[in-house]
Structures are given as C-alpha cells and as structure tokens.
C-alpha cells in the first residue's frame, strides 16, 4: 500500500467541507464562533469567482494492491491577491489554512505551500507569498520559517464593520 499527497484545486462540491474547516480553524486559533450560513455563503462565493479566491485541497491518496486509489481530504488553504503598486505586481496571500488534527505534522501544509509557491513563481506578475499568523502560534511560525518565510515587519490592523 503506497500513500502520497496530491494537491488539487477545490470545486463547488467541496464548499461544505471548506466551510466546516474554516469554522474549526476560527475556533481553534481565535476562539471565535462563526455563523455557519455566512461562512458557507462566503466559501461558495469564493469558489465561484477566482478573482475573489482560489482554494486548494491536499489529498492523501492510498493505492491498494497496486490498483485502486482511495483519496482522503487532509488539509486546505485559500489564496487571495493584493495589488502592490510598489512592486507593480500581486502578492498572493495564503489564508484559511486548515489541517485536521489527525493529519498535522505530516507534511500536509508543506505540500500545499510548495504547490502554491510553484504556481506563484510560474505566474507572471506575482511578486511573492504572504500570510498572517497569530502572535502566540509559535508552532505555525516555526513551520512557516522552515519553508523560507520571514517576518515582514508589519503589524496587521483592522476595523471590522458589522452586518
């Protein structure tokens, strides 16, 4: 039995799983309870419009007896774009990263990251990858550093508007 990780672009049929993972990630990282209907609508809108976002899913595929391949979704990330006039190009932002606990520390995020890094390097006008991470999430910070990312020296500020 051979197991491999394959990265695929998400499609509309993945919306419910992606929404559930986003809800789980918000709770784990920020102890925020998100509205399921709003998150599902957001994921569906992102999947329907590549200008909004692109989602990728890591699949652990197992070939049994050299014949049948069984795939299990084991993680995700979402990409968005930000125009940089300073660089005359797009930053690709990695967001909505989630790997279920049973699949963590097994190279799932690294595979997702390397996939989008390769896409970014092959896409004209992309100047780099960015993501944000919670100050106290040292495990994630070490993971990102091991992949070559560094602290860009910015603080993230926001003003959220309610519905």
Automatic annotation (TrEMBL):
The keyword tRNA-binding does not apply. The keyword Disulfide bond does not apply. InterPro entries: Acyl_CoA_acyltransferase, GNAT_dom. Its EC number is 2.3.1.-. Keywords: Acyltransferase, Transferase. Gene3D superfamilies: 3.40.630.30. GO terms for molecular function: acyltransferase activity. Pfam families: Acetyltransf_1 (PF00583). Residues 5-163 form the N-acetyltransferase domain. This is GNAT family N-acetyltransferase. It comes from Lysobacter korlensis. The lineage of its organism: Bacteria, Pseudomonadati, Pseudomonadota, Gammaproteobacteria, Lysobacterales.
